[in-house]
Amino acid sequence: MSEAVVDNIVAVLPPLLQTLEALTFVARNLNPAEFGRVMEIAGEPDAALQAVRPRLADWPEKFAQIRAALEAACDAALSGYAGLRAVESGQGDLVSVFRALRYLPRAQEALYALVAQLPPVSQFFVVPELCEDADLLARLDAPANANTGIFHEQNEPGSRGGFSLYVPEYYTPDRAWPLVMALHGGSGNGRGFLWSWLRDARSFGAILVAPTATGNTWALMGNDTDTPNLNRILDYVGSRWTVDGKRLLLSGMSDGGTFSYVSGLDGASRFTHLAPVAATFHPLMAEMADAGRLRGLPVFITHGQLDWMFPVQTARQTRQLLSAAGANVTYRELDDLSHTYPREINAEILRWLNQA
Q: Of 128, 284, 293, 303, which has the fewest Cβ atoms less than 10 A away?
């Protein structure tokens, strides 16, 4: 690699990664009443990124792939921050904030293409607690095994019913791997929600599936077209990779978490563990659930004390109802969490899953 290209990468990567971390911070700590304060804490890393963005111009053609990935990641990160800045200045509302944050997974997807070429990028997609784990780093530094990485099956933006999939690059078929099925929130999509879990699946070793609902959101009422689709996806993944039938996790955020109850409490569900986040739960769901299914079922509930959409009292009641019905409930209530996804809980959920 030429010295000029190396210099440009060294100049661009730090502010790019800092901007992505800032966007992640905003996404995790978003609370309508505290938006201004959260933005103040996030700072202005986008200014430094904007300043070095011109250094991605006029690279030699043989480095076009690296340049294109960095350009896409930078532009998505800057677009996301620009959207947040507009709301901060009074141009937009909460919906505009959510729209701006959709650029974060786009930037991550573009950047992930460089994990094999750029060690700082690979390090970015490792959980902090394992950043110095020699065994993990050695596995990640090795060439990727066949049939691993990120796949998208009919899951382009705007499509419904497809899924995105991540198989750790060090996957081998000689042992059974835990599977995480992660369901996006209302009006979301699996291609974006994949990035809420990818770093953890990559670090701890799990196959990750992020489907997109067949409708505008999950089938919470009426005809359930989503459960058959999840089963279809399970069949597809299980036919191509070695999946541990005793460690099949159904998780989800908001509507996705609620649907993990709707689908996962059915007596025919194939999932062994449920982990809803920021979900709602009607008492009738416990009464209608299959009694045999509930008995001993491992359920990991995560909810925020500041949740403005589904008040925390709902989660507390759910814990009581499911425990009384015989489920084996683990409950985590986060005092600083609003109605957002807390990525930091993923590691604990995976440790809990791996106790199976």
A: 284
Give φ, ψ of 37 to 5 degrees. -65, -40
d(CA 190, CA 151): 12
Euclidean distance between CA atoms 97 and 333, whole angstroms: 25
pTM listed for this prediction: 0.95
d(CA 235, CA 343): 27
DSSP 340: S
Residue 269 token pair: 């569900």
Q: What is the pLDDT of residues 79-128, one digit of tens each?
A: 999 999 999 999 999 999 999 999 999 999 999 999 999 999 999 999 99
For 10, the token pair is 């060294």
- DSSP assignment letter at 300: E
Can you give the CATH number for the domain in which 254 is found?
3.40.50.1820
Nearest to 28 by CA among 41, 17, 15: 41
The DSSP output letter for 114 is: T
CB 196 within 8 A of CB 253: yes
* Residue 246 within any structural domain of the chain: yes
- Evaluate if residue 184 carries a pLDDT over 90: yes
User: Where are the extended beta strands (E) located within the chain?
Assistant: 149-153, 163-167, 177-183, 207-211, 243-253, 273-277, 298-304, 328-334
Q: Is residue 116 part of a domain?
A: no
